Amino acid sequence: MAKPFEKRIWLATPTMHGDEIRYVQEAYDTNWMSTVGENINQVEKQVAEYAGCKYAVALSCGTASLHLAIKLAGERLYGMPKPFEGTLQGHRVFCSDMTFDATVNPVAYENGEAIFIDTERDTWNMDPVALEKAFALYPDVKLVVLVHLYGTPAKLDEIRAICEANGALLVEDAAESFGATYHGKQTGTFGCCSAISFNGNKIITGSAGGMFLTDSKEDAEKIRKWSTQSREAAAWYQHEEIGYNYRMSNVIAGVVRGQMPYLEEHIARKKAIYERYKEGFKELPVQMNPYIEGEMEPNFWLSCMIIDASAMCRQVRGEQDALYISEPGKTCPTEILEVLAKHNAEGRPIWKPMHMQPIYRMNPFVTAQGNGRAKTNAYIAGSIEDVGMDIFNRGLCLPSDINMTAEEQDCIIEIVKGCFA
Ligand SMILES: *Cc1c(COP(=O)(O)O)cnc(C)c1O
After folding, report:
1. pLDDT for the residue numbered 20
2. Is the CA virtual torsion 211, 213, 218, 222 positive or negative?
3. Residue-level pLDDT at 384
4. Ligand 1 atom, smallest distance to 209 CA
5. Collapsing DSSP states into helix, strand and coil, what is residue 210?
6. How far is ligand 1, taken at its centre, from the CA of residue 138, in Å?
């Protein structure tokens, strides 16, 4: 075995440039140590301008932004909820299946029921064919929550057309894809509203933070109000609706403000990492996480790979543990992740599909062939296409840290190659 890295190689860590601390210091020096201040004003302007939308509202995190986006869509569709009911009470919502649970949890916060839509192989995002099947099975659904996973845009034209044909609203989870474009337009500007995240591992970071994006002035104002405890315009604390403490801090906004000028540099460096893996793995029986060239430009937030079925050794995953049987010429994500960890490098399994999460096990799941839930057990016997689980079983996220050097990445490539020996 090659020597482990002395300094750990991470999946994705923050990359600071120096301007961030200047804006944080400014917040301190001017005593705007609050959820009000110039950093917030500036960063909202910059993000809206960059994304090409009219309004951006700075919030405490991506999850809060998604919550308010989904709540807003629910209220537009179904009106103000009864006291102590969610806006999605008694309603179903189509959601990306292969994603982080923050995409779909807000549907539950608003008392809706998520119906998971299977994944396609061209971008690893929501399958438009499965979405169409889902509308045939559940014609009453009026809301779709779509993620752009790992920074790769989903098939937005197809998905938007299906939403329009069915009179449904689209909310985009662009938490991982800030800066990625589809037909030259930024992700996060295709739905009725959307969310981005400035979590520590994202393409740029505020250490935390998120943003709500919209073209509607009225919606932006509503989100500002909800995120500051839904205070009415009275001299005292007056409340007509449920509120939240979701506003971004001016200190966090200082970090985001310092990062904004470096977004494109980060994307370029992430793309170089992706291309270097692609080149390094060209002799191996693997593919990189795919995108459709000419149609979309990902932000390459995470580099992932998927092992050809013919090169997979046996691997069994339970709820918490995984086992595999090593075989010459073959490997599996569990083995590669284990070997990377032994070398002090961090990879990660593909985000486990929501329909296989214990908490969502009772929720419907629709594949390109129709009702996937009835067939999920059959899939385990290998008889139906559950694309998300197939990618989960054969795929993994590679160390994609901007701070990783080319030499270090070459070592990672050799380590991965060694797993196929
Ligand atoms: C990170 C992330 C979120 C949540 O963002 P936070 O800022 O961490 O709350 C939501 N969806 C996806 C797909 C994410 O990767």
Report:
1. 98
2. negative
3. 63
4. 7
5. strand
6. 28
